[in-house]
Design a protein that fits this description.
Layout: E1 3-9, H1 14-31, E2 40-46, E3 56-57, E4 60-61, E5 67-74, H2 79-97, E6 104-111
Parallel strand pairs: 1-2, 5-6
Antiparallel strand pairs: 1-5, 3-4
Helix pairs in contact: 1-2
Length: 129
């Protein structure tokens, strides 16, 4: 049930975007053990001047090809699972697109199950307590 938001520089094309989407999904399926059909993602292409980042941070160089991936998910994954997800997604993106793993920026935001509605105005995962 993660919700993924991907932001990248405009102009990369549909094949590149599809590769990003699939790379993130593969990582979530493999490392967070989500169901294959649990695929909720948005992609936002922005103008180059709308991507703000330093050319280097924590000794990691970044280029204009940087991609921001924001994953919102229910709390409960271990640090080891998160580290594995970061590594798998970066590796998959590099393999599928040729982007440097240095340009794969990922953040995970966690929340409680009651903060989700998958439709019908219901909180399907909320407990009644």
């Amino acid at each position: 049930m993660p919700f993924v938001q991907i932001t990248l520089r405009r102009g990369k094309g549909p094949e590149h975007i599809a590769a990003l989407v699939e790379s993130v999904h593969r990582g979530l399926v493999e490392e967070f053990k989500i169901p294959e059909s649990d695929k909720f993602q948005t992609v936002r292409e922005v103008e180059p001047y709308q991507l703000i980042f330093p050319p280097e941070y924590l000794a990691i160089p970044h280029t204009e090809d940087i991609v921001f991936i924001h994953i919102t998910c229910k709390e409960g994954r271990t640090v080891a699972m998160k580290k594995a997800l970061f590594a798998t997604v970066a590796r998959q993106i590099s393999k599928r697109t040729g982007l440097s793993p240095d340009d794969v920026f990922i953040v995970i935001s966690e929340n409680k199950a009651e903060n989700w509605s998958f439709g019908r105005g219901l909180a399907q995962l909320a407990s009644d307590s």
